[in-house]
Design brief:
The protein has 127 residues and is mainly α. Helices cover 66% and strands 6% of the residues. It has a three-stranded mixed sheet. α1 packs across α2 and α3 crosses α4.
């Protein structure tokens, strides 16, 4: 059962990540299809998160001479990714101020995080 849940959660995370990268600005200009987003998810995001390295020949670079992501040369620009994330978060913060449904979803997420932290108080306290 735990394996089934893990596989299901992985599929959901992959689906959410592909959709997130392919739809809202500033990412949608770089990930023109969900297939491009899946390449990023599997080879860069999952590689870095789970294995501390990119996979399948992808390389992380930084600097103004590189685009956010180049699917031909398999280069992702860490500076440009950070800038895009900051741009997205700035827009999210502005929208959050006036969007009641988004505010309610935000509160639900933080309530859930708080609940999980209360199940492991030593972790929440940094211990």
């Amino acid at each position: 059962m735990a394996n089934g849940a893990s596989i299901s959660n992985t599929g959901v995370a992959n689906s959410y990540s592909r959709s997130f990268l392919a739809r809202p600005p500033p990412f949608s200009g770089w990930f023109l299809t969900e297939d491009n987003a899946e390449v990023f998810y599997k080879n860069i995001r999952c590689g870095l998160v789970h294995e501390a390295q990119t996979k399948n020949g992808w390389v992380v670079r930084s600097g103004a001479s590189y685009p956010l992501i180049d699917f031909d040369t398999k280069i992702v620009n860490s500076d440009a990714v950070g800038d895009a994330i900051n741009e997205y978060l700035d827009e999210y913060r502005q929208t959050l101020k006036n969007d009641q449904a988004l505010q309610e979803a935000f509160v639900r997420k933080f309530d859930n995080l708080y609940h999980h932290a209360s199940l492991a108080p030593e972790f929440a306290a940094g211990g």
